[in-house]
Amino acid sequence: KYQALIGFRGSTTQALAARFQLYKFLTPGLECAKPSILLSEGTPTVPDSLSNWSLFRQKPARFLTNWLYQRRATDPTSPAEPIKDLITIVCISDTHNTQPALPDGDLLLHAGDLSQSGSFQEIQLQLDWLNSQPHKYKALIGGNHDLLLDPEFVDNFPQRILERPCTSRSDLKWGKIIYLNNNSVKLDFANGRSLNIYGSPLTKQFGTWAFQYPPIRDVWTNTIPLETDILLTHGPPKGYLDTDGLGSEFLLQEISHVRPRLVVFGHIHGGYGKEAVRFDGVQKAYDGVRFGEKGFTTVIWMAILIILQYLTIIIHFRGPKQGTEPTMMVNAAAVGGYKNQFSRPAITVEI
Predict the structure, then answer these.
(1) pLDDT for the residue 74
(2) pTM
(3) Would you say residue 218 lies in a domain?
């Protein structure tokens, strides 16, 4: 109900009042707010002073870590030499039968949910559309809506697929598309560089869909090769572009261990965007507090680390270190809104 209400873009009095009442219930301390402060874009908001004070009263440690994180040093060490011949990667996900215009690039990645109901016809139309794109390489994974691509789902729920002659998974025409299903591929580019890509369609179970696993099960540890440059998953890691904690904590731990240059996902439509993440002490402290694992001692330690980062930049007493390059997280969900009525452009990244 919450997603339905905040996803509504209309401006009727009834809708605004309903959204306001729900937001009051979800956010204690807003009794004095008025419905007029709700944006027509579907995002509830309040004046900064009231919102910040309310958030601080509810979770002071988390509020302070958020404040510190926004003021962290974004370049704690001297930048390494710039990479020549950058590779342009176009990221898209959750197209759900839509066919948005895509920018040009060297590599096109689709992070799953090509279709809405997972039928042969829907998936084949999406494959045809992707094959028509000019990118040298095109790679994709399935998503929870792409039912036909999951053999286990087809076996367990044949009534959801309704296969007919010549409409099975083996009848799909992939063309030059690289399909990844818990495996890797190495791609060589004209500039002499190569990229290792690992793809997995797995997401935490919610309803009856494809490629799902029980949320308490760790399906990620030691599954992603250490040489992976790009990780392509359908679901997000916990805490990053996942609408505040809907992603997988085990996936986050594995990403922190492998540290690929780029992680592309979707699934949580509201998390659309990109974020550079450095898995350093500041990041570890930040995650520990916001996930409820650490307290005020960690907040103080985080503040000290941020001060040291700024001193490092000012004094220039250290050069670049191995492993300081950030991991770029990208939620490339192409549709949004309660009924997928809003469209977003593909996200382009250069590495």
Answers:
(1) 67
(2) 0.77
(3) yes
